Amino acid sequence: MLITGVEPRKKALSALYIDGEFAMKLDTETLIANHIHPGVEIDNEQLHRLIQESDNKRAKEKALWLISYRDHSEKELVDKIRRTCSRESAEAAVSRMKELGLINDEAFARKYFKDLTQGSKHLSPMGAKYKLLEKGIDRNLVDAIVEETEVDQQEQIRYLIEKKYRNFTTDEKYRRRAVASLQRKGFRWEDIKSVMSEYENEDDYGC
User: Fold this and answer.
1) Does residue 117 share a domain with residue 199?
2) Are 95 and 12 within one domain?
3) Which carries the bigger pLDDT value, residue 186 or residue 105?
4) Does the pTM of the predicted model rise above 0.85?
């Protein structure tokens, strides 16, 4: 196969032309490092190696960019890298990030659980548990974090009512909407009912 063209493109990529036809876009630095330019002959094995090397480089760069933006779980990082690279390259890049100590599922899970239950989301422990499982965190680790972390669920419900649903006592439709929203966050009906009764009793006494 004859390389008949190498043309720069966006995002540090170059279009590779083989035998007069566009073949693919590969990482520009990979092509330069391998002395790929018009007039060079390559075989299928060499082309496959170029593709893999380009993919691996792009996957590592994508991993570093993503974790510089915010923390990620291993699964989440693999899934995002796979949008532009192969699964093999994505998993290799994430494995390398793990070796370098740049990602850690346990540290991520503990921080994320705290953010979900005590940050702006104010989810229940059960609601936060589902979010962690969606991120690919090991179920045993999630269960351990939930068990060892104390969360005052009724206080969480009070916060959410004060912030979003303070007028639920005057409108039954609004009340049902508030209950449904709190249940979606993982709160138990018993706790929701208990906290709501506090506000209803206040209204009864004109407070």
Assistant:
1) no
2) yes
3) 105
4) no
